[in-house]
Amino acid sequence: MLEKTAIRGVLEKVKAEGRQALTAPEGKLLCDAYGIAVPQEGVAGSADEAASLASGMGFPVVMKIVSPDILHKTEAGGVIVGVKSAEEAKAAYDKIVANAKAYKADAEIAGVQVQQMLAGGQEVIIGAVTDGSFGKLVAFGLGGVLVEVLKDITFRLAPVTRDDALSMLDGIQAAEMLKGVRGGDPVNRDALADMIVRVSNLVNDYPEIVELDLNPVFATKDGAIAADVRIVVDYDQPAPRPRPSQEEIVTAMNRIMRPKAVAVIGASAEDGKIGNSVMKNLINGGYKGEIYPIHPKADEILGYKAYRSVRDVPGEIDTAIFAIPAKLVAGALTECGEKKIPGAVLIPSGFAEAGAPELQEEIVKIGQKYNIRLMGPNIYGFYYTPSNLCATFCTAYDVKGSAALSSQSGGIGMAIIGFSRSAKMGVSAIVGLGNKSDIDEDDLLAFFEQDDNTRIIAQHCEDLKDGRAFAEAAKRVSKKKPIVVLKAGRTSAGAKAASSHTGALAGNDKIYDDVFKQSGVIRARSLRQLLEFARGVPILPTPKGENVLIITGAGGSGVLLSDSCVDNDLKLMSMPDDLDAAFRKFIPPFGAAGNPVDITGGEPPQTYKNTVRLGLEDDRIHSLILGYWHTIVTPPMVFAKLMVEVKEEMAAKGIEKPMVASLAGDVEVEEAAEYLYQNGIPAYAYSTELPVEVLGAKYKWARGAGLL
User: Signal peptide position in this chain (predicted)?
Assistant: First the structure.
């Protein structure tokens, strides 16, 4: 193996020459050093030398221009394949050099690469790219000339494990092609996974390698060999963002989110002022800690003694809530630093979002100087219901529960508050992050991970400042608690102009999608989905296996529910003969057993009860989807109360399985759905999609956490 010093020598030479890419022979040196299989090759400086090299390695060969000034060789007419004789090799040499000069007259030409020609096997691409938020990522997908047309590619954070690499082979749409189609041989999965790991190690060891392509890689039953290597470098890498330790994050976040004393900077006795709303919410919300209003002139506000500055407050302060204009924040924040206050909740707008990045940079520097963690600016504040803390100008909120929600946007935050209130969804916290000058999603993950009052974390974000820190935190936290993320802006192109195929394919949203999967995050595709997952996932028991059964009173619902199962990666159980016979005892002859079990619409309540009880009792069934159809024989509330009765009867025997319900009918089904929900069965009127999506989210989490 080539010594690391030799690789460093190659990279330093490229830097000294002011180049942004390695030549193919230089790329081969790096591949050889990391055990990445590439064909036999050599560089010819003349037509005769090309003929000699080609004859030595055996025909056919591929010949390619070697020039630091020509990155896309095919475009320049710098590649000729299938060269079959010494005479053809001489002619190809002359033609390639002539084409290169015609393409770029002043191009420096180092020679022509003569390479053993590979044939057969599946063409794939293995590559790497550097993302502004996530850092180094490796990629795998279908390769060859159609790579940018098909865009069938998947990403993982580097460095990858062997398991990560194997999951990438199954993560593309054309995964079946790798298993061999129409009598073809399957590819050697171990060889491909090994190459992915080696590429991952290479780019991880050398930060200046920003893009790498092995395209095509010929994958056969015997192994994998990269026909072409392209490596792009950038020696001007930004310094990594400073991150406190896990212990420091948790210590600070505990004082901010669960403060014993709060200061309100800009507190006001005047209705309609933000400082007035914050004070009223703290008082009316029932917060039991100390409240210190800060005002330059007032002696008392809403019955609380006021102070000119936080420095004048006699006791310790954990959190300062800012309700003053942006231009005054820096001065007051400095006083917080002198008072050793660990957290600042910055409600004011008028910073980076309003074209004043310098004001934001100033407060970030003050925060770093005094070790103050900053939430915001440009936020609605936050709620932490176990402490009755409403540190916000929005209305006080008092429905306590186990869901912790956050949003980057104030408008989305208001929607979260409204839905939570309307749906009676208990929350442990609702947090605004705004401009994320400091505190961001991974800080919240660290807090909620150790917060016994939180069972699910749901986050809306438009970007991740440090995607790698988020992914590392999410991978750890998602093993204990479900994390749901609504990533806004998923339709934007997101990819900068790139020099490699992998770079061009690194559309921002595809990276988010794959990293979320790698980290065990459940991705919500809409605001409503985020909210429904936050509400429904925590009340469902964790399934013990993959077998899902549908019991429905309407054939049409059964078909739509089955479609939703496919859309949400749920496995409809194949019905064993004995179980099929058991269900048939309860349903009319014109009903349908199998899966879905269609009991038909005219059946009395007892039929629902018998079939659902059987579904819960049989160990081979792991979760139930109920499709109810409104009839005179079984009215909505009769159905709802019966289902809760069966559920509780089984729970008393120690049997608990996830159950969701879809209710089709007139407006009475709304009350029935709400009753079911309040009793632990997520239920939806007029929707066959939402209940299955909620069940699917529970399954995604359970799989990612290794519980199935």
Answer: none
